[in-house]
lytic cellulose monooxygenase (C4-dehydrogenating) (Serendipita indica), 361 residues
Amino acid sequence: MFAQLALLSLAAFAPLVAAHGTLSGVWIDGKHYPAPMPLENPAQYIVRSVNSVDPVKGTNNPDLNCGHNAQKAGLVADAAPGSTVALSWRNGEGGTWVHRVGGVVNFMASCGNGGCATFDSAKAEFFKVSELGKYPGTDNWYMADLTTGPNGTTSFTIPPTLPAGEYLIRHDLIAMHNGLSEGGVEFYPACIQIRLSAPSRTASAIPSGKEVVTFPGGYSPTEPGVLDPNVFNPGSVYTPPGPPLAAIAVADPNGSTSGGSSSTSGSDAPTGTIVASSSSTTPGSSSPTPTSTGGGCGGSRQKKRVIKRIVQQGPLIKRHANKAAHKRQELPSKKRAPAPTAVVPVQERTFAVRSRVMRGI
Ligand SMILES: [Cu+2]
């Protein structure tokens, strides 16, 4: 019901705000949970709501915690240690996410005995469970997989030995197109409430001590993943910010990697960590497909309507502050090899081509 209303409202304010965006949905082992629209009541969601599609700026910003004025969600989703969590994003128009350069990181924190629906995330002791930058040995970014269409997702694995209990996932896109100078980076944090069953093997301790950080505080304004003058240079190495991966996420007792680390079994094109198209983790049947075909093009056909809506509802969404910066972000993709994705549905391929044409790439 909420999702349908959300889609209707998406259609109502199409262009103008393609540059930023919000989390659009979560899949836990294939089960879909939509994310609230900005300012939407989060009572019927597992994703905490935010009040803006704009990025969070500044590593000391309190909104770096769970997003702009994040509000606790009413629901908590069932999951298990070892579950796959896939996440999709939309731009401010409800179309396809546009940022491709930077990091994708996922943290988790115990919500304690009180549970996540009432948990104050400012107190959360977050440990890192996955981090992604470029596909190994390439200049292709994992984040770009979110730009392939409404079903483009990024995913990670819940550490298989995490104890039972309620946890907050802090998912964060670190858009680096302006991160060549200090303070330019755009953070897009989103928090998701889950409840883990007991692990099938011996539980580890919940990470603590040096493995945990709070937000704000988890990133420094000058660390390489946040400030990187070379981020567009071919062959440059990008290191996502924050603490190292928690030990619980790095190696599981079977010896395989988990936690969405990019080192998957020696393949030159990892497939286990980011799924760029609808797949087992993103069943098309239940996925919310935004109807906007404007993508990142930002036409002006419906400008009047958008402005009217903004006047009526207040500044739900602000115009992008620096369009030139976003143009710059697209430049490197001229040289970019085709994304290393196996199967892209025709519909999405068409969309990708169209948006490239519209952006003049
Ligand atoms: Cu943006």
